[in-house]
Amino acid sequence: MDTVRHGLHSWLLFLLWNKGLSDGSDVTQTDILWGKKDDTATINCSHTKDSTYRQMYWYRQLPGESMKQIVFTTAFSKHEYESGFSVEKFPATKSDALTGSLTVEKLPPEDSGVYFCA
User: Mean pLDDT throughout 21-38?
Assistant: First the structure.
């Protein structure tokens, strides 16, 4: 996605969608998120499965690229970041089995893309 110029600020569009274990109807996340350059953006995710579904995966797809996993999270262990992604840039929270969030720090235009949880 190209950035949209508005005044002196660059605005970033994060298109988000959810994907559950079946048709996605049991997963809810922030739908569309706008942010200015250097802002912080937080995406929240929750599911209605039972508490045995403790894992949450966060993915992103940038324009012209394949989908990449950012991080694997659980409420009960250390988060596992994929190569090229860090806790400093993409801090994630997972305080219980049903909810979690992903933050993108200091947004540059290059972070504009599709982000989702599973």
Answer: 74
**Domain membership flag for residue 65:** yes
pTM of the shown model: 0.78
Task: Report whether pLDDT(5) > 70.
Answer: no
Please give the tally of structural domains in the chain: 1
24 pLDDT band, cuts 50/70/90, is low
CATH number reported for the structural domain that contains residue 113 in this entry: 2.60.40.10
Q: Let me know if 90 is exposed, middle or buried by CB neighbors in 10 A (0-12, 13-18, 19+).
A: buried
Can you give the residue range of the structural domain that contains 59? 47-117
For residue 26 the two structure tokens come to: 């049991």
Beta-bridge partners for 35: 12
